[in-house]
């Protein structure tokens, strides 16, 4: 049944400004759920189409999608005072590429493919990379797409831009303030804005001055104290439940396919509660999404989100703030640590990182090896840069190469270095 635009907007008002519970309000909530999940099919179709194009792109990338969480929609309706039908990012796709110039190249690549033959329209490109958005410093390029009457937002970011965005997401939950929406202590907000500005300078090939580095580290120390005091549950000292991650890896689709998962994360303990596989059928997806949202309330510190990707390894990159909670003394990195970390990460491309992740997951260390042909043709077919990526890993000494390059395995002597790349 088609829901009218006025009815959808009424459902949005009912959601954002709830009154007493009535039969009508329950019907409106059902209409909201129907409208939100109606983005899943056009979103999945667009993601798969772009994923197919990317095989000819010639560069490294990660691509994933998500259907916007209900608490996020409620906050946005209230903050912007807009109608539900005006929201353009209920369905969202995200692509992570290596560098800022790679973002430009990918935008041109997508424009060309849309113009030649696409099942969707490109309505607008909004670029937040030079100035950063609002007062927060958020940087990314947003492409507004449309298919089957639904707006879909495509975000394209470099790895550094994505690192910043995921860091502020994770900090926001632990701090208890939505920093990208300018909630919270200005000291914390300004730290992230200044960090974003300096990252942009670094990515543009300009080194930050000593004064900028000192200023940022002073801001970091002040922000860290504020955030740590707010982290009552000490989430930063928690560990990810890798058993759930390994179990879900067995449910992912074949190469080039798209699997949607419902993911439940407990920010009180910093761990996954559960994952559940969701198909592309709108009705069953809606039932699962609403079931988990009702069972795990955001008011109690749970986060329920629907994410789609070709494999779990991709989600670990595109939504890394769920996976990056490791034990360390400082909540926020100082600039020197960040630069060193980025230098390590940028030494290898996305393709090389995917190869490393696969070899680690399959435990190809030392004497346990795999033929290069099997690795290329069966396990990493989506790595378009396989030959150059594998050569990079060889040159860095991360691989142990068998006779005549017939077999390869991970170099046990480089175990800690390999883990840093991931």
TrEMBL record:
Limits of the RelA/SpoT domain: 65-179
Pfam families per record: RelA_SpoT (PF04607)
UniProt KW Oxidoreductase keyword: no
CDD domains recorded: NT_Rel-Spo_like (cd05399)
Domain of life of the native organism: Bacteria
InterPro entries according to UniProt: GTP_Pyrophosphokinase, NT_sf, RelA_SpoT
GO biological process, one term: guanosine tetraphosphate metabolic process
SUPFAM superfamilies the UniProt entry points to: Nucleotidyltransferase
Keywords: Plasmid
PANTHER family associated with the record: GTP PYROPHOSPHOKINASE YJBM (PTHR47837:SF1)
The protein, known as: RelA/SpoT domain-containing protein
Organism, as annotated: Acetobacter vaccinii
Lineage: Bacteria, Pseudomonadati, Pseudomonadota, Alphaproteobacteria, Acetobacterales
């Amino acid at each position: 049944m088609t829901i009218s635009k006025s009815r959808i907007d009424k459902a949005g008002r009912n959601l954002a400004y709830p009154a007493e519970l009535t039969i009508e309000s329950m019907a409106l909530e059902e209409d909201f759920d129907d409208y939100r999940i109606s983005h899943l099919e056009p979103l999945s179709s667009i993601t798969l189409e772009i994923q197919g194009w990317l095989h000819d792109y010639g560069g490294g990338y990660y691509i994933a999608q998500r259907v916007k969480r209900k608490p996020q929609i409620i906050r946005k309706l209230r903050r912007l005072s807009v109608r539900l039908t005006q929201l353009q990012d209920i369905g969202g796709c995200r692509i992570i590429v290596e560098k800022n110039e790679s973002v430009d190249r990918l935008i041109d690549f997508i424009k060309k493919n849309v113009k030649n033959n696409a099942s969707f329209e490109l309505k607008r490109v909004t670029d937040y990379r030079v100035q950063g958005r609002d007062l927060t410093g958020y940087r990314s390029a947003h492409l507004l797409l449309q298919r089957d009457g639904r707006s879909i937002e495509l975000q394209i970011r470099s790895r550094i831009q994505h690192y910043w965005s995921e860091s502020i997401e994770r900090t926001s939950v632990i701090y208890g303030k939505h920093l990208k929406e300018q909630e919270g202590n200005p000291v914390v907000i300004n730290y992230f804005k200044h960090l974003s500005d300096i990252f942009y300078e670094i990515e543009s090939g300009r080194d930050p001055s000593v004064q900028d580095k000192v200023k940022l580290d002073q801001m970091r120390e002040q922000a860290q104290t504020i955030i740590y005091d707010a982290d009552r549950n000490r989430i930063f000292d928690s560990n990810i439940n890798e058993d759930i991650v390994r179990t879900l890896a067995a449910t992912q689709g074949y190469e080039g396919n798209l699997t949607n998962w419902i993911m439940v994360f407990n920010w009180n303990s910093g761990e996954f509660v559960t994952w559940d596989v969701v198909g592309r059928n709108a009705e069953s997806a809606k039932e699962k999404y609403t079931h988990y949202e009702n069972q795990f309330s955001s008011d109690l510190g749970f986060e329920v989100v629907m994410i789609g990707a070709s494999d779990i390894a991709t989600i670990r990159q595109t939504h890394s703030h769920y996976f990056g909670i490791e034990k360390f003394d400082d909540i926020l990195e100082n600039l020197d640590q960040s630069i060193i970390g980025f230098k390590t990460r940028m030494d290898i491309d996305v393709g090389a990182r995917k190869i490393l992740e696969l070899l680690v997951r399959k435990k190809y260390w030392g004497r346990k090896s795999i033929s290069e042909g099997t690795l290329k043709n069966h396990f990493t077919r989506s790595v378009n840069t396989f030959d150059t990526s594998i050569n990079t890993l060889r040159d860095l000494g991360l691989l142990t190469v068998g006779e005549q390059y017939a077999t390869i395995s991970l170099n046990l002597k480089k175990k800690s270095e390999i883990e840093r790349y991931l």
